Amino acid sequence: MLRLLLSFTAAAMLTTQAIGQSAADVATARLAYIDGDYATSLAVLRPAAEAGDPVAQNVMGAAYDDGNGVPQDFVLAQQWYERAAAQDFAKSLHNLGLWYVEGRPGVPQDYAKAIGYYDRAAALDYDHAINKRGRMHELGQGGEIDLEAAAELYQQAVDLGNHNAMSNLGRFYVRGDGVEEDMGYALQLFRQGAAAGNLSSMSNLGAMYKNGYGVGQDNLAAMALYRMAAERGYADGAVNLAYELIEGEEGWRDPAAGYGWCLAGMAWDSNNQDLAEDCTYLAEQISAEDRTSGEAKAAELTR
After folding, report:
1. Does pTM top 0.85 for this prediction?
2. Which of 43, 107, 286, 289 is such that its CA lies 20 to 30 A from the CA of 37?
3. C-alpha distances in angstroms, 259 versus 2, 254, 282?
4. Could you give the C-alpha distances from 16 to 23, 81, 136, 143, 241, in angstroms and in order?
5. Of 104, 107, 165, nearest to 133 (Cα)?
6. How far is residue 297's CA from residue 130's CA, in Å, rounded to a whole number?
7. Residues 42-75: tens digit of each pLDDT
């Protein structure tokens, strides 16, 4: 999850100073939370949150959202997020937008509310919210599909350095969705995202090399990029790697390992029916013995 990519505001600094804590204290406690030291971090963050610090309030919301250091409680998570959002804390606005896109127990899916929260965060130049709002336009969530609006928002998020938007916008330029097809710009976006560690960009960059889009075809480069994404748990990268290991160049074929990667990818993104269909297809291309070995490989990868 990306809930803890927090930014500090003048309001947060003033609040922490008012209760005898500095923004540095809250920042240090936040880092302890990220590192998994929940007892230490929440001992500092809870009083700061109760005193009105929006950074601390957002982390308290995340703690109750995920059940980290406290019993999972979506009611309390929402309350903490809303207290920070009332101070226009962009990350909490984004978190609430995500809640209403996905829905939570006791919080039904509501695209109109999600749009309201995302738009408030976007007005604060919060790149994650801008990217998510573009995704809503792409999927037609809360209105008609609008690929041009999605592309414009992805570009805004790219300009703010958002790595997920680089992958999303790159896809658009490959397919010409809402923009003129431009393989060179797509390649630039995927390279930029991949260099920053974005797994979707890695996998997409691999596909550019595999197909020779905007660059000379290079199966070895594609294979390496798919593997990097797969080894970091990216489902599409795992399935792309599976195709290479089962149907790719003769010298690196390993059907059992390929099937294992496909099953792992399917497990990592269990709601993606396309991946399930890929694995069904690949299963038909290999022997029963390789399928059995692949199942063992998948169990190892997903345990």
Report:
1. yes
2. 107
3. 31, 9, 7
4. 6, 18, 36, 41, 49
5. 165
6. 39
7. 999 999 999 999 999 999 999 999 999 999 999 9
